[in-house]
Amino acid sequence: MTLQGPTPVPQGPVPVRTAFDRRELSVILSVYGRMVAAGEWRDYGISCLHDMAVFSVFRRTAENPLYRIEKRPKLRLRQGMYSVVGIDGQILKRGGDLKTVLRVLERKLIRAVD
Questions:
Q1: How many domains, the chain?
Q2: What are phi and psi of 65, to 5 degrees?
Q3: What is the pLDDT along the chain (114 residues), one digit of tens a residue?
Q4: Burial of 77 (0-12, 13-18, 19+ CB in 10 A)
Q5: Which residue range(s) make up the domain with 82?
Q6: Helices 98-106 and 22-37, interaxial angle, to 10°?
Q7: Which Pfam families match (predicted)?
Q8: Does residue 13 sit within a domain?
Q9: Cβ–Cβ under 8 Å, residues 30 and 41
C-alpha cells in the first residue's frame, strides 16, 4: 500500500468574468429608476458571464426580459461594446458610449399628453 499526499489543485489562470463597473451600473440604474417610476418596468436581473455582462429588464418577474443591456468587451473596437436587445432578439441600438445606447429606451418613456 502506498500513501499519496493530497491531489494538487491546477494552478491555471482564474477564469475572468465580464461585469458592469460602478459608473456603468449608475447610468443603467438611473434609466431603470425612471422607468420604474413611470410604471413600465418592475424587476431586473444581472448576469456576469465569461464573455459578456447582461442587465435584463422585466415587466413582471415571471416573464422573458423586455430588454437586455449587454456589455461585450470583445466588440469595443468594432461595433461598440454596449447594445440594447429587444424581447425578440433584435438589436435596437449598439455603440461605444453607454448613455448614447440607452437613449433608445428613454424614447419609450416619452408620451403624448392630451
A1: 1
A2: -65, 140
A3: 566 666 665 666 655 788 888 999 999 999 989 888 888 888 889 988 888 899 999 887 667 888 899 998 888 888 888 999 988 888 899 988 889 988 988 776 555 444
A4: exposed
A5: 22-106
A6: 10
A7: DUF2794
A8: no
A9: no
**Residue 50 included in any domain:** yes
Name the helix (H) or strand (E) containing 46: strand 43-48
For the chain, the residue count is 114
Nearest alpha-carbon partner for 85 in 47, 54, 112: 54
Pairwise CA distance, residues 98 & 28, whole Å: 8
Nearest of 103, 102, 99, 83 to residue 91 by alpha carbon: 83
Give the whole-angstrom CA distance, residue 74 versus residue 66: 24
